[in-house]
Design a protein that fits this description.
Elements lengths: L3 E7 L3 H12 L4 E5 L5 H4 L30 H14 L4 E3 L3 E6 L4 E5 L3 E9 L6 E2 L12 E2 L12 E5 L3 H12 L3 E5 L14 H9 L4 E3 L3 E5 L3 E6 L2 E6 L2 E4 L3 E2 L2 H7 L25 E3 L14 H4 L1 H14 L1
Parallel strand pairs: 1-2, 1-6, 2-3, 6-17, 8-15, 9-10, 9-15, 10-11
Antiparallel strand pairs: 4-5, 5-6, 7-16, 12-13, 13-14
C-alpha cells in the first residue's frame, strides 16, 4: 500500500533514528518524520555546546562515536548522527511536521504538512525542546527576548540578562561575557543549579565572585521594556539597563500534540504521559513513546544515553505482537 509503513516514527532525533535502525534490522518498513533538519533539537542547541555525556554514551546502532575530546561538541554530534542516517539509509522525511494522528481499525492515519500516511504502529520520539516555559510577564513578546540561545557574538557589547541557573543559562552567561557583554543573571533560587557541569561551575562562581558577572539570587523578572528590565529582589525592585533577555527557563514536551493524539496526561507534576515502562506502549494500543518525552516535565529523567534502550524495547514488543 502506498505511503503505508509498519512503523512510523515522529521525531528525527537520536532516539528516533535508533528506533528506525531497530525497525530496519527487524525487517519492518519504517519512516521517520522530522519537522526541521535532521536531529532538529541538536541543531538548535547553542553553537558552542559541549555535551555532559561522553561520546560512547551517545552512540546508536553500535557505531562508534569517535572524538579526540573528553566530551563531544554539538558540531561533532550533528556529523555523527548525519553519518548514522546515511550509513543505515534510513527512510527520513525532513522538514515535514506531523500534525495529526488518528487511530483507525486497525491502522493509524497520519497527516503531515506535506502528505498523508498510514502505519501499523506509531512511535512518538519528539523530546521536550520544542515548547519553552514562558515567564508570562509584560514585555515577554518583545523581539529582544528569546527562549533559545545560539551564538554569543550576537550579544557583543550589549547589556544582557540571563534568566536561570541551569547548564544552558550558565553557558550563555559565560560565553556572552567573554564576547564583551555586560551580563546579569536572575536566579529564582539561592545558588547556581546543582546539575551544572562540574568543569563549568568553578568558572561561573569565580566570575560572579570577581564581579565580572552580576547576579540576583532569590529574584525574578516582573516586566521587560525596550531599554530596561524590572527585577523583584529580596531587597526590593531593581530596574536595570537592558538590550537582550535570554529567558532560558526550561522547556516541556508538546503536551497539546500528545493530547490530540489521544495520550492520557495527568494534570499534576511531572505530567508524565501514560505509558507502560516495560513496553513503552501508551494507553493507545500500538502507539509508543521513546526518549526524553517519556519524562513529562521531569526533563532530567531521560537522556540520550539512558533512553537508547527504548528503541529495542519497542521494536521487540511490536515483533511479539506480530508473531
Amino acid at each position: 500500500m502506498k505511503n503505508h509503513f509498519d512503523v512510523l516514527i515522529i521525531g528525527g532525533g537520536p532516539i528516533g533514528l535508533a528506533c528506525g535502525i531497530q525497525a530496519q534490522q527487524a525487517g519492518l518498513t519504517h519512516a521517520i518524520f522530522e519537522k526541521g533538519p535532521l536531529v532538529n533539537s541538536l541543531y538548535n542547541y547553542p553553537i558552542n555546546m559541549t555535551f555532559f555525556s561522553s561520546s560512547e554514551r551517545l552512540e546508536i546502532g553500535e557505531i562508534p562515536f569517535v572524538t579526540t575530546l573528553p566530551k563531544p561538541k554539538r558540531a561533532e554530534a550533528l556529523e555523527y548522527y548525519r553519518r548514522i542516517d546515511g550509513k543505515f539509509n534510513l527512510n527520513t522525511y525532513l522538514f515535514e511536521e506531523v500534525i495529526e494522528v488518528t487511530k483507525g481499525d486497525p491502522m493509524f492515519h497520519v497527516t503531515t504538512t506535506k502528505s498523508n500516511y498510514s502505519a501499523s504502529s506509531v512511535i512518538v520520539a519528539t523530546g521536550f525542546y520544542d515548547v519553552p516555559m514562558k515567564l508570562n510577564i509584560p514585555g515577554e513578546e518583545l523581539p529582544k527576548v528569546t527562549h533559545y540561545y545560539n551564538d554569543p557574538h550576537y550579544y557583543a557589547n550589549q547589556h544582557v540578562v540571563v534568566i536561570g541557573a541551569s547548564n544552558s543559562s550558565v553557558d550563555a552567561a559565560l560565553e556572552t561575557f567573554r564576547k564583551g557583554a555586560k551580563v546579569t543573571m536572575v536566579v529564582r533560587g539561592h545558588e547556581i543549579g546543582p546539575r551544572v557541569k562540574y568543569w563549568v561551575r568553578p568558572d561561573i562562581e569565580n566570575r560572579i565572585k570577581a564581579g565580572e558577572i552580576n547576579i540576583f539570587y532569590n529574584s525574578r523578572l516582573t516586566s521587560i521594556s525596550e531599554q530596561t528590565v524590572s527585577i523583584q529582589t529580596p531587597t526590593g525592585l531593581e530596574v536595570i539597563q537592558n538590550d537582550f533577555v535570554l529567558a532560558l527557563t526550561g522547556y516541556k514536551p508538546n503536551f497539546d500534540f500528545l493530547r490530540r493524539v489521544g495520550i492520557n496526561i495527568p494534570d499534576q507534576f511531572p505530567m508524565i504521559p501514560e505509558h507502560n515502562p516495560q513496553t513503552m506502549e501508551t494507553n493507545i494500543p500500538n502507539l509508543y513513546l521513546a526518549g526524553v518525552v517519556c519524562g513529562g516535565l521531569n526533563t532530567h529523567l531521560w537522556f540520550i544515553e539512558n533512553s537508547r534502550i527504548h528503541a529495542h524495547i519497542i521494536i521487540e514488543q511490536i515483533m511479539e505482537k506480530r508473531n
